[in-house]
Specification:
This protein is mainly α and about 140 residues long. The chain contains four helices and no strands.
Length: about 140
């Protein structure tokens, strides 16, 4: 009986250790992806803001093309980070919040005056903070 108990306790200990290791790796992966989401959302906002501001200032198309390419690159990074966050969490609400921020930033391109652009940027920053708060709740849950 003692032998069976020793085997069972060794098996249970190993199983709990593997689960704990897996949980730590998942937490680290989520933290990395949330950081990447935050970084790429802010960078996309900055690049798209610069692109829209350049257009409003009437800069030549050649100058604006570099900014356009930077914004496209940042948009791709954001989409990738959002997809990774969704894969790791399975939280559709978080994915929607992050995608909403990305779409809000994309509307910078349609503004007609600098004040509207600044207002959209502030709205996007509020949405980023809300989405990151939802992500933080995943980390502590």
């Amino acid at each position: 009986m003692g032998f069976v108990a020793a085997l069972l306790s060794a098996w249970l200990g190993a199983r709990l250790q593997r689960k704990s290791d897996r949980d730590v790796r998942m937490l680290e992966a989520r933290l990395r992806v949330y950081g990447e989401c935050a970084d790429s959302l802010y960078e996309y906002s900055r690049a798209t803001y610069s692109r829209a501001k350049s257009r409003l200032a009437g800069r030549p198309e050649v100058e604006r093309d570099q900014l356009r390419q930077a914004a496209y690159h940042c948009n791709a990074r954001v989409r990738s980070a959002i997809g990774q966050a969704y894969i790791l969490t399975g939280d559709l609400d978080l994915e929607r919040r992050l995608s909403t921020v990305r779409r809000t930033v994309g509307t910078y391109n349609g503004v007609s005056d600098p004040d509207e652009l600044k207002g959209l940027q502030q709205q996007a920053y509020r949405e980023i903070n809300d989405a990151l708060e939802a992500a933080r709740r995943h980390l502590v849950a």
